[in-house]
Amino acid sequence: MVGFKTVTRRFNNLTDKLQTMYNKNSDKDWLGAAVTAGLGAGIVTSFAVSQGQHPLIALAITGFAVLVALLCSELGLI
Fold this sequence. Notes:
Blueprint: H1 4-22, H2 30-50, H3 55-75
């Protein structure tokens, strides 16, 4: 027969594993968020530049996307 302490220990181990699995916001990856946003916006704005948009406007849009991604990452929205 399984004792109360064994059941409690197994439940605590399961709880610890679930908390580790779902609480991933403890280590924020600013570099990953910045690179992902920069690449995504860079692809779109490079197409816009090829269609005649000014390159500085494209860089400003890419920079704004990176800032918004970093802000969302810091606030835990991502």
